[in-house]
Amino acid sequence: MSLHIYNTMTREKEEFEPLVPGKVNMYVCGPTVYDYIHIGNARPAIFFDVVRRYLESSGYEVNFLVNFTDVDDKLIRKAEQLGTTVQDVAERFIAAFKENIAGLGVHEASRNPRVTEHIPEILSFIEELERKGYAYENGGDVYFRTNKFADYGKLSHQNIDELQLGIRIEVDERKENGQDFVLWKAAKPGEIAWDSPWGSGRPGWHIECSAMARKYVGDTLDIHGGGQDLQFPHHECEVAQSEALTGQPFARYWMHNGYININNEKMSKSLGNGITVNELLKRVKPAAIRYFMLSSHYRNPLNFNDETIAQAENSVERFANGYGNLKHRLQVAGDVADEDLDAVEERVETIVAQFRAKMDDDFNTPDAITALFELVSEANQYLQRPVVTAQALNIFLAAFEVIDDVLGLLPGETEDGLLDEEIDALIVERTEARKSKNWARADEIRDVLAEQGIVLEDTPQGIRWKRK
């Protein structure tokens, strides 16, 4: 089965075919960097990280772009509150964003373009739209003529005459039409600004992604993604301005993840129920957060509460224990003939094939996780045998790693603290210290491991460890 993706534009699952065989250009809208990101921002960060990982595991070369909006009304207000500059606010929260998503096991993007570093490209883009009659200036602001672009509304499947004005589309008497959106905003006194043919000002929100995507990819992206809330107006406006300029589809596949609710209520500032990733990482293991985000299909809503997080923590602990048991037994397993090796290999290959089939079906991560549960069960059953072989254990371990290279649910990659190799070395040192009756050093090592949440267990095959 080949990969199929649900395309928001067509409202259908379509077979994935990138513009250039073997290469994928993927652009995901990043944060406006005026504060710490919340768990709603974490969902696209984690999900599209999995999409990127799966594409790479399928043999594609992926160019993965995530932008930073580093100039905006919110940044200007934050800078005023803090008595600093917009640039300082942006630098602070870009650093926080990178730290948070790294903590969640999200791989670094190929590039993180920033608005303030692409003003010439944005100005050129707007000037071209103006020459083509799609943009007009009034009072130093420049607007896009939505009624000139016949397909405005095709992404969100709304009729232009029935559209409700969305977030950041401001009602302004200077507009020719209520749905027209701003491309360039005239500067107010004291605001950060750049010179332009229309006077001092700064870019509107929507234009930035179109201009930066065009610079680093060209006229057409393979995949454009983001949260469901961006579908209208942000992505709708991107489609309009980009396709008006180039005459080419802006993206071949549009992907949008669903919302996150908190205790069955919509997360919002007015309710004061937002949770930042910074806060969450202090009390929940990163692997459990990833599991929670992937436990429901990406297009469906998610409900965050203590129960769902507890379930996630239990599940990732089961994965970690299964993987850890295999690695522990491998240390003492014999390299003897195994007459059941072919049967083990066939069953494991079937599970990995099931995993890939579910991922090929529009990145169905809940069912893909089910395959990981099956692998744990098979591995645990195999470990009940009185004699296990290195060959079979390596088959199981390789399958764990194939799946986890995509999902990122095993500890080590996403957890802070000691690396597995460091823990193994400390356990060896502690064993030697006990043999030589160096009880002080043995106790010291035990305390170090305990502080890191490492639990030691005596087994017939020797001491093994696991994370709490």
From TrEMBL:
GO annotations of cellular component type: cytosol
Domain annotation Cysteinyl-tRNA synthetase class Ia DALR: ranges: 354-418
InterPro entries given in the database record: Cys-tRNA-ligase, Cys-tRNA-synt_Ia_DALR, Cys-tRNA/MSH_ligase, CysS_C, Rossmann-like_a/b/a_fold, tRNA-synt_1_cat_dom, tRNAsynth_Ia_anticodon-bd
Binding positions (Zn(2+)): 29, 209, 234, 238
Superkingdom field: Bacteria
Catalytic reaction annotation: tRNA(Cys) + L-cysteine + ATP = L-cysteinyl-tRNA(Cys) + AMP + diphosphate
Cofactor: Zn(2+)
GO biological process terms, semicolon-separated: cysteinyl-tRNA aminoacylation
Family statement drawn from the similarity comment of this UniProt entry: Belongs to the class-I aminoacyl-tRNA synthetase family.
UniProt name for this protein: Cysteine--tRNA ligase
Organism: Paenibacillus methanolicus
Phylogenetic lineage: Bacteria, Bacillati, Bacillota, Bacilli, Bacillales
Gene symbol of the encoding locus: cysS
